[in-house]
């Protein structure tokens, strides 16, 4: 039951409102079971029915999401550093925390071109994608060898790093330079630079700036220094 509930919620989150018959096909479960599940979720206000018979996620999930983000970022009280970084660079700033197989965004401050960026608070990226994902893979806490045993991964764009050799080389570069440069591996035309926020040598979060690639790639060194300075004030050696 719990597995089907999670699958149903994820399907509605991804696709939007769905009729029970469509949801049953997506989940691969009998239609009566889906009706019972949706009825129970609707009773708790977690899904809402519409006039055409479809169901969508209810607004009650917003409270859960806000609570989860507060819990994930309870250690962080330096939004001033994110604001300063945004104002200094003109770029969108992201702060993400590591989770199994993924990194989850807990802060996003809009800069130029923010509408072309896919990552939002509460959203996540796998560890082989994007600046925040790949810097998290390079600095832990998840075992990189165990994660890379699943390679090759499905590409998102033609620039995505998906093979074990590509990602091993990226990890080595990230660890040597203290930063990851993401160039169109998540969204065409978009680049990012990410650095680790460390607490006693352990990865606490990933900090990045992102925007149009022409606003990033010509000043990688300057942006890396700004990110590293901000990350150093957030964490500890």
TrEMBL record:
Gene3D superfamilies: 3.30.450.40, Winged helix-like DNA-binding domain superfamily/Winged helix DNA-binding domain
GO annotation, biological process: negative regulation of DNA-templated transcription
Stretches assigned to the IclR-ED domain: 60-237
Annotated ranges, domain HTH iclR-type: 1-59
UniProt keyword list: DNA-binding, Transcription, Transcription regulation
InterPro entries in the record: GAF-like_dom_sf, HTH_MetabolicPath_Reg, Tscrpt_reg_IclR_C, Tscrpt_reg_IclR_N, WH-like_DNA-bd_sf, WH_DNA-bd_sf
Repressor keyword on record: no
SUPFAM superfamilies given in the database record: GAF domain-like, Winged helix' DNA-binding domain
Keyword Nucleotide-binding: no
Superkingdom, taxonomy of origin: Bacteria
GO molecular function: DNA binding; DNA-binding transcription factor activity
SMART domains for the chain: HTH_ICLR
Transmembrane feature ranges: none
Name of the molecule in the record: IclR family transcriptional regulator
Organism: Nakamurella leprariae
